[in-house]
Amino acid sequence: MLLQLSAKVHEIMIVASLGQIIWHAVRHELLYGEGLPLGLVGSALEFSRFEFFFGKEFYGSLRYLNHDHKKMKRFGFVFLLIVSGMTAMLAGPASAVLLVPRSQEYSAGGTNFYLNGSASDFWPEKLLDDAVELEAMCPGSESALRDVCPAGGFVSLWERWSSVNHQNLHESNVRSFANSLSGSRFYWPVHSPVSRTPPLFTLGNPRSTNETSAILVDQVTRDWWQAVPKSLSVTPSQVEDRNVRAAVRSSIAAVRCTGPQNVSIDQSTMLFPSIEGRWNWVGDLSFDVMLADTPVNFSRFQWVDLPDKFGAVSIGAMLELPRAEGSVSRTLVGCSAQTGWVPTTLRSDAYTFWSGYYPYGIYFGDRTPAWTATGADQRSSPTNGRIALGAAWLKLLTPPAPPMPGTTGNWSASTIEVILAAAGVSDTNRTTGSTGQAEAWAQEDQITQGGKKRLLETIIASVLADGLSRSGSHRVFNDPEDMSDPTISMYRPRHDFDQRILRGRDALALPDGDQATYTILRATMLISGYAFHASLPGYLAVTVLVVHATLASVHVLWLLLRNRVSRSWDSIAELIALAQNSPPAEKVLQNTGAGIGLFHTFATMARIRVRPAAAQGTAQQDRVELVFERDRGGTSPSDELDESVELQGPHGAPVSVPDPHNCVPASWTFPIDRTKLRISHQTHSHSHNESAETLIPRIRKDTKAQDLVQIDHAYS
Question: How many other CB atoms are there within 10 angstroms of residue 636's CB atom?
């Protein structure tokens, strides 16, 4: 606020400075120059108004530019007026741009980092039956407790969905900035059971970034932040935010489910949604599913491998709601899921400051693997447009759940079944029968805009996205099975790590061996804070201020070289007082009592000249007066004199005088003769019959300096 106030004060000072420059130019022209048009006499007060340059005063005054004598000087004054006016109008925005800092990001280094494996190890196109390496590290329920296993995010997901149900799905724990980050109201962190891996943010449908890349980025970022304070000479309090970005692939999952289906006990055919093209969800298709006969007190969940007719579906899922003993039908919900990799930018969280990582700048149209139209089945390969998922990997994704708070008895549910129960998806009373359960779901769907079906879709998608984000993460650690060992494979900082990373040079040593055995990614570091930064608005603002500085410098230099300046007549009040005490120019300024309506009136030239005491016929001091006359270059000679006069000698005889076109009123002419001449006013009936004023003809070029105001001379 104080900086904005300073910007306003700066603007006022700039306008005042320009006003002083123009006042000096106005006084100089009135006192020592050829004079100024009437419309420009008050330009020092009018130049800062935008409408002044479109009014009659300014346009009428431009007529005096037609004079051939000292034309460049006249153009120079008008140019000064226009430039000063533009500078005054732009001074406010320019000061605000330059004096008020903005929160901006600045490059603070970067480096390459290396993943121990090929791109297919970390972003596989298919996860079918080749999970032998993972099965050894993630046996049984251990998969839900190890951060490198597909089910490593189970605890966090269970905590999240325990606090959400189908009624508050869109309102619960929604952050104000969630939509700007993910394009969705869904935005929540997913952590791991141990601190070896940083938290991620699940966004949107949902989608999650790559856990493997986040581990490396997190380690690089921590080491980089240690180098920033001592190498850049800044303290953490001077940095508003810090973040690291890296171009990676992130997992994405989209799930669609049918409504509850009543299926008799002796039947196994149910409906699943299908996909046309890449992700265009169309109608439901039937498929036979192997179902268990035993009734349960909780919802039973199982994965279903859907055939080609369902399009680019990665996997299907079936949810059986609780049913009572002896029921003749069951309630089933069929779901289809599509998963894939999309190019994204991994970024540290910019809002809660160093709390995790999320993907942004997501290129949805560039899914990997890509989709290709291949005919009716749209599946020329097992990975056309999606990640193909197999039973071995899905078993690791949803293993038997470890004991959790609130669970009792011999419940051997899977992790996803525990999550569904915690979210209330399976809280329907099984004694109501399958028909009642289906009706209850349908009513809730209408009331809560999707109800339990939308909640079920989101939970399945979050489980898939989180599991995929951990692909290849076991390759990052030297000993992935030792949960207490956080050392990272292929992470070897150079001896001059601090200097290299801040300069954007590779700060990590290259891994040994063939380049095909590792993947190269790059992280860029940025810091943000309130600061001044070069930008196009900044350059334009600087230009405005440089123009003012140039005008002010030239003005000061001019004053020092000419050594002639006056502090008089720097306000309209003083000019009015001067005009009031000057002879009236009734002919030149006729018909102006009720305002000025003609352009040529504003072109009337005004000058400040000396009327000597001798010409006044008194012993008083010389006086200065404001006089007006038609510009000689723009009007006819007959318009020069203010009055029609008849000159007579002492006894009434006519006096022969030079051509009146070469004469000027004595009120501002230094007399070169003491002869008194009588003036008879013919034009104005209210004038006196006689006048003591003296009219002395002279040639302007011979005595021009004699009627100019002199420095250090006393005037009345």
Answer: 9
Contact 245, 523 (CB under 8 A): yes
How does DSSP assign 242-254, residue by residue?
EEEEEEEEEEEEE
263: left (phi over 0), alpha (psi -120 to 50) or beta: beta
User: pLDDT per residue over 308-365, tens digit each?
Assistant: 889 889 999 999 988 877 778 888 999 999 999 999 888 887 655 556 787 777 787 7
> Using H for helix, E for strand and C for coil, what is the string for 339-353?
EEEEEEEEEECCCCC
Helix axes 154-162, 451-469, angle to 10 degrees: 160
- d(C-alpha 530, C-alpha 541), whole Å: 18
Contacts made by residues 592-599, CB under 8 angstroms, sequence distance 24+: 596/56, 597/56, 598/60, 599/56, 599/59, 599/60, 599/63
CA dist 250 and 243 (Å) reads: 18
Estimate to the nearest angstrom the gap between the alpha carbon of 537 and the chain centroid: 12
Helical packing angle, 71-99 and 2-31, nearest 10°? 170
Count of C-beta atoms within a 10 Å radius of residue 563: 8
At 16-73, the pLDDT tens digits run 999 889 888 888 888 887 888 888 888 888 888 888 888 888 888 887 777 666 778 8
Prior bond of 343 cis (ω within 30°): no
Q: Which residues of 269-300 are buried (b: 16+ CB within 10 A; e: fewer)?
A: ebbbbbbeebbebeebbebebebeeebbebbb
Strands 388-389, 126-127: pairing kind: parallel
Least confident residue range of 2-6, 50-54, 438-442: 438-442
- Residue 519: other Cβ atoms inside 10 A: 22
Backbone torsions φ then ψ of 182, nearest 5 degrees = -115, -5
Q: What is the pLDDT of residues 68-98, one digit of tens each?
A: 667 788 888 889 999 998 999 888 888 888 8
For the sheet containing 623-629, what is the strand order? 36-37, 605-611, 623-629
C-alpha of 541 from chain center? 17
CB 166 within 8 A of CB 448: yes
Contact between 355 and 286 under an 8 Å Cβ cutoff? The reply is no
H or E element that contains 80: helix 71-99
Query: In the 8-state DSSP scheme, what is residue 412?
Result: -
Burial of 85 (0-12, 13-18, 19+ CB in 10 A): buried
pLDDT value for 616: 61
